Amino acid sequence: MKKTIAILLVLVIGMVGVWADTSPATSALTLTTEIGLIFQSKLVSTANKADTVDVTGFESLETLLPTQPVDPDTTSFGYLYIMSNNKPGYTLTITGEALTSTTTTSIINYTLTAGTATYVSSTNASTPLATSTITALDVDELAVSVDIVEADWNNALTGSYEADVTFSFTTNS
User: What are the DSSP calls for the chain, one per residue?
Assistant: First the structure.
């Protein structure tokens, strides 16, 4: 009787493998994420090697004061950094006005340049800079310079002059 029970147990245990499902069990998982648009700019006084600036480095760039003294000897005075992950790129446009004074009617014209984007105050004309497709987070470094119209400077009346300049960025589509 013990032999019979032992034989039956061996058969039962052995047959479990015959009737067991041998196909592997699988589970599926779909991973998703959303990457938001990164589109920032900073105007700084010194070059920071754009090819080494990442998101953390961009955040630590020192921003210039909102006022920049200029005269005919002023040329390059800063750098405009633009950080974007917009695949079609972006367009930079500079707008502004001539240097004017609240105490005189004199005006002082200039041309302001950032990279290849320009603004000419005498004609109120802008030449935008349009980037092409980018393949990863991109940080561009554009030298900013001004060229004062020397004749306007030499003929200007005494006074303080100022002009507002705006750097506008739009995403390319």
Answer: -HHHHHHHHHHHHHHHHHHS--SPP---------PPP-EEEEEESS---GGG--HHHHHTSPPPPS-----TT--EEEEEEEEE--TT-EEEEEE---EE-SS-S-EE-EEEEETTEEEETTTTEEE-EE----SS-EEEEEEEEEEE-HHHHHHPPSS--B---EEEEEE--
> In this predicted structure, what is the pLDDT of residue 110?
97
Q: Which residue has the tokens 């994420």?
A: 33
- How do strand 110-114 and strand 129-130 relate by DSSP bridges? unpaired
Of the candidates 150, 148, 151, 129, the one whose C-alpha atom is nearest the C-alpha of residue 140 is: 129
Cβ atoms of 157 and 101 closer than 8 Å = yes
108 within 8 A of 161, measured Cβ to Cβ: yes
- Predicted confidence at residue 16, as pLDDT, reads 56
- List average pLDDT for each run of 10 residues in the chain, which is 173 residues long: 65 58 84 94 81 72 81 90 93 97 95 97 97 90 95 96 95 92
pLDDT of residue 51: 59
- CA dihedral 147→83→165→60, nearest 10 degrees, is -90
Q: What architecture is domain 39-171?
A: Sandwich (2.60)
